[in-house]
């Protein structure tokens, strides 16, 4: 526990700083280009989303699913895995460079594909942004490849801390944009080539530096790596077989995302659309990143080692412990964000009215926060057993449901509620996915203690419901929909923080009354993050 605890704290601390600076980055970006109802903002949001789509395929798909377990296994080779990693890095760099080049050439087609409802001038602006943004694919990929390899070597910190450099560069560049050109610049006709180059060039420059910083830490892995184009003989065929299912799985998810993007493009200029949904997702992912990734990543490395050694009983224990630990934190985070939905949304909007429009999008995403934390553990357990085919099947179900719900939303939801309807459909689809995945893993391992950790999640929810109501009461006491918590982005953040503290205090008190056995270890882990007294 001490090793996992130290790693979790290191990752968690880095993730907190990274996410806070990421929030500041988004606040400054909204000040520069707007959010709800901004056609220029949606154009940039779509263009900057394109390299992230490829990054999701590379990181969430191929690397997390395949590379970490294989590097753990390769460590047993006589050279410690050096030959394997050298060939892997060389192949990865070649593929990334080719992908980035082809994507940049195809920028006009990609923009038209993802934003068919954009007006012609908006498509032209988004395409100009995309030419600057799509080269990020190469550097996102290098960052993911090196970072996951470092995680597999139990070097957790740099992968988490490197994005801070990206955020600082982006904040500085966006501030320069505001100083030079003013803001928010929301109308497409007001944009010039110089404005496009400064905004999108800053975004790409931050990603480049993020990758370079991470590369500087490779020596900590204590694994010599050199270019090696001889890609046969060290198991890359096996990786290809595993990655084939993972690739199909992520492609299914991206097809679903494509349908969502195409539907959502029709709401641009009329209410929350592309950029507002991305900002709501950023808020949604804040607790997921801080809690799930910081605690879950070290567990995944340990779980991979136990699975590789055939110690199924220890794997079952890893699953139950990680879900209970993640659940205790993620349940209260869900309650806190739900209670503070409007002030939190004000962080990424330019008026109280826009915050009220954006808050339902966040609330609809939050429906799946707890299920997704469970999925993190369940899905990666399949990966630890080199099973990427089963996750493909349950993800295919989820992707199909996302597509169906997005099409239903386009048919029945008012345009100003379209983003919220799409978010709700995604949450419902993810919840169904988790149920199927849990059932399949339980059958495979002959039981994974589902009753014990489900009971724990129920206990956490029992404490979180009154805690969330107390937090919402605090929001009303602070003025509610017309109070100071929605009067500005900074005050929105302060108000959300106060509401969150109320929820947390009530939650901890109720868990103590319920004598929750997970509370003590969780508080010990939390104290590791806090600065020492005195």
From TrEMBL:
<feature type="transmembrane region" description="Helical">
    <location>
        <begin position="195"/>
        <end position="218"/>
    </location>
</feature>
<feature type="transmembrane region" description="Helical">
    <location>
        <begin position="88"/>
        <end position="111"/>
    </location>
</feature>
<dbReference type="GO" id="GO:0008360">
    <property type="term" value="P:regulation of cell shape"/>
</dbReference>
<feature type="transmembrane region" description="Helical">
    <location>
        <begin position="326"/>
        <end position="345"/>
    </location>
</feature>
<feature type="transmembrane region" description="Helical">
    <location>
        <begin position="390"/>
        <end position="412"/>
    </location>
</feature>
<feature type="transmembrane region" description="Helical">
    <location>
        <begin position="123"/>
        <end position="146"/>
    </location>
</feature>
<keyword id="KW-0573">Peptidoglycan synthesis</keyword>
<feature type="transmembrane region" description="Helical">
    <location>
        <begin position="280"/>
        <end position="301"/>
    </location>
</feature>
<keyword id="KW-0472">Membrane</keyword>
<keyword id="KW-0133">Cell shape</keyword>
<dbReference type="GO" id="GO:0009252">
    <property type="term" value="P:peptidoglycan biosynthetic process"/>
</dbReference>
<dbReference type="InterPro" id="IPR051050">
    <property type="entry name" value="Lipid_II_flippase_MurJ/MviN"/>
</dbReference>
<keyword id="KW-0812">Transmembrane</keyword>
<feature type="transmembrane region" description="Helical">
    <location>
        <begin position="7"/>
        <end position="33"/>
    </location>
</feature>
<feature type="transmembrane region" description="Helical">
    <location>
        <begin position="239"/>
        <end position="260"/>
    </location>
</feature>
<protein>
    <submittedName>
        <fullName>Putative peptidoglycan lipid II flippase</fullName>
    </submittedName>
</protein>
<dbReference type="GO" id="GO:0005886">
    <property type="term" value="C:plasma membrane"/>
</dbReference>
<feature type="transmembrane region" description="Helical">
    <location>
        <begin position="453"/>
        <end position="478"/>
    </location>
</feature>
<feature type="transmembrane region" description="Helical">
    <location>
        <begin position="490"/>
        <end position="514"/>
    </location>
</feature>
<keyword id="KW-1003">Cell membrane</keyword>
<feature type="transmembrane region" description="Helical">
    <location>
        <begin position="357"/>
        <end position="378"/>
    </location>
</feature>
<feature type="transmembrane region" description="Helical">
    <location>
        <begin position="53"/>
        <end position="76"/>
    </location>
</feature>
<dbReference type="Pfam" id="PF03023">
    <property type="entry name" value="MurJ"/>
</dbReference>
<feature type="transmembrane region" description="Helical">
    <location>
        <begin position="418"/>
        <end position="441"/>
    </location>
</feature>
<keyword id="KW-1133">Transmembrane helix</keyword>
<dbReference type="GO" id="GO:0015648">
    <property type="term" value="F:lipid-linked peptidoglycan transporter activity"/>
</dbReference>
<dbReference type="GO" id="GO:0034204">
    <property type="term" value="P:lipid translocation"/>
</dbReference>
<feature type="transmembrane region" description="Helical">
    <location>
        <begin position="158"/>
        <end position="183"/>
    </location>
</feature>
<dbReference type="InterPro" id="IPR004268">
    <property type="entry name" value="MurJ"/>
</dbReference>
């Amino acid at each position: 526990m001490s090793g996992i605890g130290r790693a979790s704290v290191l990752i968690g601390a880095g993730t907190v700083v990274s996410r806070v600076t990421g929030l500041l980055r988004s606040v400054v970006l909204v000040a520069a280009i707007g959010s709800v109802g901004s056609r220029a903002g949606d154009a940039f949001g779509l263009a900057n989303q394109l390299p992230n789509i490829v990054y999701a395929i590379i990181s969430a798909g191929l690397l997390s699913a395949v590379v970490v377990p294989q590097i753990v296994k390769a460590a047993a080779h006589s050279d410690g895995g050096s030959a394997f990693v050298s060939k892997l890095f060389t192949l990865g760099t070649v593929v990334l460079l080719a992908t980035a080049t082809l994507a940049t050439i195809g920028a006009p087609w990609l923009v038209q594909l993802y934003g068919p409802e954009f007006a012609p001038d908006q498509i032209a602006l988004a395409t100009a942004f995309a030419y600057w943004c799509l080269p990020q694919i190469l550097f996102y990929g290098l960052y993911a490849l090196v970072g996951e390899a470092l995680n597999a070597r139990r070097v957790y910190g740099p992968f988490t801390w490197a994005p801070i450099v990206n955020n600082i560069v982006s904040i500085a560049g966006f501030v320069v944009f505001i100083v030079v050109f003013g803001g928010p610049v929301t109308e497409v006709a007001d944009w010039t080539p110089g404005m496009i180059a400064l905004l999108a060039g800053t975004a790409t420059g931050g990603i480049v530096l993020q990758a370079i910083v991470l590369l500087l830490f490779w020596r900590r892995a204590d694994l010599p790596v050199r270019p090696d184009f001889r890609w046969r003989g060290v198991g890359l065929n096996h990786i290809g077989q595993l990655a084939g299912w993972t690739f199909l799985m992520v492609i299914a998810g991206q097809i679903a995302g494509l349908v969502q993007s195409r539907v959502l493009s029709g709401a641009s200029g009329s209410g929350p659309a592309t950029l507002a949904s991305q900002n709501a997702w950023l808020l949604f992912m804040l607790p997921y990143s801080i809690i799930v990734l910081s605690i879950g990543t070290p567990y995944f490395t340990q779980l991979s080692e136990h699975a590789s050694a055939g110690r199924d009983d220890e794997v079952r224990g890893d699953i139950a412990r990680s879900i209970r630990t993640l659940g205790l934190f993620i349940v209260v985070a869900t309650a806190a964000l739900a209670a503070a939905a409007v002030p939190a949304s004000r962080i990424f909007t330019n008026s109280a009215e826009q915050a009220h429009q954006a808050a339902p999008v966040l609330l609809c995403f939050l429906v799946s926060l707890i299920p997704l934390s469970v999925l993190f553990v369940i899905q990666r357990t399949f990966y630890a057993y080199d099973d990427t085919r089963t996750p493909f099947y349950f993800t295919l179900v989820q992707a199909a449901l996302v597509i169906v719900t997005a099409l239903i939303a386009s048919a029945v939801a008012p345009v100003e509620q379209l983003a919220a309807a799409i978010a709700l459909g995604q949450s419902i689809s993810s919840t169904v996915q988790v149920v199927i995945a849990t059932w399949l893993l339980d059958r495979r391992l002959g039981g994974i203690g589902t009753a014990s950790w489900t009971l724990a999640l129920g206990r956490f929810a029992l404490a979180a419901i009154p805690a969330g109501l107390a937090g919402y009461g605090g929001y009303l006491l602070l003025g509610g929909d017309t109070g100071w918590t929605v009067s500005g982005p900074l005050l929105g953040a302060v108000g959300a923080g106060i509401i969150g503290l109320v929820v947390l205090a009530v939650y901890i008190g109720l868990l103590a009354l319920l004598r929750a056995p997970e509370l003590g270890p969780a508080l010990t882990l939390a104290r590791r993050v806090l600065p020492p007294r005195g």
